[in-house]
Amino acid sequence: MSENSLFALLLRSPWWISFVLVAALALVSRALLPAEYFVLGALSGFPLFVVGCIAAWRQLRAPSAAKVQQMLDSTQSMPWSALSQALTHAWVGQGFDVNVASKGPVDLRLTKGEQTILVSAKRWKAATHGIEPLRELYNAMQAQNAQGALYVAGQGSVSESAALFARDHGITLVQGPALAALLLG
What we know:
Blueprint: H1 6-12, H2 15-32, H3 38-43, H4 46-61, H5 65-77, H6 80-93, E1 97-100, E2 108-112, E3 115-120, E4 128-129, H7 131-143, E5 148-153, E6 157-158, H8 160-168, E7 171-175, H9 177-184
Parallel strand pairs: 3-5, 4-6, 5-7
Antiparallel strand pairs: 1-2, 2-3
Helix pairs in contact: 1-4, 2-4, 5-9, 7-8
């Protein structure tokens, strides 16, 4: 699904917006269509109703802002071994096989079927995340024929050039609320 499609936008919006659109579509159908076509017009909003249900389910299951902040605070005090275990547990819960990489920019290797994703996470406490670790991760991704890469930035900021490099080279930045949501499962 395209990131800017109507359904994608509604999935990222508050759940009730989809239901308001369904109601508006039903009202417009009632006002503009002949009586025998009203039901068809009103039912055309059914896909929006389904999207609203999915958005509501996701939003009700999402961790609260307080839980997210608490998790982010706890990751700042975690040693590498604890963070590595927490990340491994989260990805195993998503169905990945997780292997610890022995050296280089790759810390963990995730596999699911034929898909391989490389993870660089040891610099999660860095104050600033520049382009060089991302470049090393990208080179490892190319050398190992991985389908994707994740760079975990638990603290600090990612420079603009690093964020652009990650976007342009298929590296997903996992930071802030996304990191907390991953660890909270």
